Amino acid sequence: MAEPVRILPEDEHNAVTVSNVHPADWKNPEPAQRYNLVVVGAGTAGLVTAAGAAGLGAKVALVERHLLGGDCLNVGCVPSKAIIRSSRVAADIRIAREFGIHVDGVEVDFGAVMERMRRLRASISHHDSAKRFRELGVDLFLGEGRFTGPDTMEVEGKTLCFKKAVIATGARAAQLPIEGMAEAGYLTNETVFSLTERPRRLAVIGGGPIGCELAQTFQRLGCEVVLLHINAHILDREDGDAAEIIQQTFIREGIRLILECSIKRVERRGDEKIIHVEYQGKQDAVAVDEILVGAGRVPNVDNLDLEKAGVEYDKRTGVVVNDRLQTTNRRIFAAGDICLKYKFTHTADATARIVIQNALFLGSKKASALTIPWCTYTDPEIAHVGMYEKDAEEKGIQVDTFVKSLNEVDRAVLDGEAEGFVKVHVKKGTDQILGATIVARHAGDMISEISVAMAGNVGLGSIANVIHPYPTQAEAIKQAGDAYNRTRLTPFVKRLFGWWLARGL
């Protein structure tokens, strides 16, 4: 019999979460003779696929070995954004004097911050609950699922026969092959949210989105954070101007950055963990209380017996799919992190919708047609959609770039959030938007306007003609459109206007 699923610490909030997303008393149903769709994995992609298909009348089975809700609910988006919010409050209080508000000191109750996160996660967990999906008409099987053939799967001794199947098993934190790391012990996104006491000194390995979000958060919550990154700049896959703003913010907030570094080994000395690192031609030993690894993710392809189903995969990149998200077994599709380059909750949701159409209704929807925005939830945030300038150059596309700095946007100045910008790339000589980057405190909310414009083939000039409320930070997008429209006023057009207006005098 499988061990009961636990989320640490075992308090009342986590008990509610577990009772929703992996109830201890759950009894798997008797399988139907055949399913229209068997979905393996109950993260975002799997849940959206199962609920959507069942709502359309399909007979659906959903298989999950651990927690419904996957990473997003349990160890990803939901808990991280909860503690990011607390850290922003602490940061705002520290600069309250700049707004004419005098506060004597900031005391962060780390245990209360984490308790709040667990309470809110529990309150949200019913959306992904076993009970809810049973009520939606989905046959939920909790346990390890393995393919036994091209159209069959076994779960806890029961065989599920399917017409179509979807692999949505997601991804997990990558393990780094660093000598002594496993013996010393370390945290990942899968364990860091179980902390109840604040580590005084925290090393974060990895300067990508996950590492940067959590490094800033824990620094603001009172940890002494050192961020170690293999490359010369944090967030080096982002727009360079955007990444530089975040790097300077980190330095200003007291995060120690060790860049272009190589971690040689880790050892434990009593309660300390010593990271032996080489950078800038010298060697150093960094002593910390905890290590958080946020450097990459790997797909969950193990223990599925994909070979028996005729599904091709790569242990580094995941399940191989075509543009319709179909695997090498024409009956089986994949969605979400298990097969996508862009491992975001919203892309998992979007690809699940593609799979429903293509698997059940002979659809021809293509993943390549998606307009995919994303956001790194540092403070300020970096949000992006479409191409970077370097992408356009690689494809031989000439672009015009329009930039509006937030220090020229009234609301951003009044909010004290003037560090940032809106940058929009259009195809040269047109207003066709190819991509955009926004750096602002709520850039993730702002980027959707540009995403909608791109998906609807609305040009930057047309955005300028849309009335935006004043004063808002989103006016920066409109002002970038105004900047484009001014380029249409060529010397010839200006002379023509002058001639016309002179006639009326």
Task: Give the arrangement of secondary structure elements.
Elements (H helix, E strand, L loop, with lengths): L11 H10 L13 E6 L3 H12 L4 E5 L5 H6 L1 H18 L15 H15 L5 H6 L3 E4 L2 E5 L2 E4 L2 E10 L3 E3 L7 H4 L16 E5 L3 H12 L3 E5 L11 H14 L2 E3 L2 E9 L2 E8 L2 E7 L1 E4 L3 E3 L6 H4 L3 E2 L3 E2 L12 E3 L10 H16 L12 E4 L4 E6 L2 H6 L4 E7 L4 H6 L5 E7 L5 E8 L2 H13 L4 H5 L10 H13 L3 H13 L2
Parallel strand pairs: 1-2, 1-6, 2-3, 6-18, 8-9, 8-14, 9-10
Antiparallel strand pairs: 4-5, 5-6, 7-15, 11-12, 12-13, 16-17, 19-20, 20-23, 21-22, 22-23
Helix pairs in contact: 1-5, 2-11, 4-5, 4-8
Please sum up the structure shown.
The chain has helices spanning 12-21, 44-55, 70-75, 77-94, 110-124, 130-135, 181-184, 209-220, 240-253, 306-309, 345-360, 389-394, 410-415, 443-455, 460-464, 475-487, 491-503; strands at residues 35-40, 60-64, 139-142, 145-149, 152-155, 158-167, 171-173, 201-205, 224-228, 256-258, 261-269, 272-279, 282-288, 290-293, 297-299, 313-314, 318-319, 332-334, 373-376, 381-386, 399-405, 421-427, 433-440.
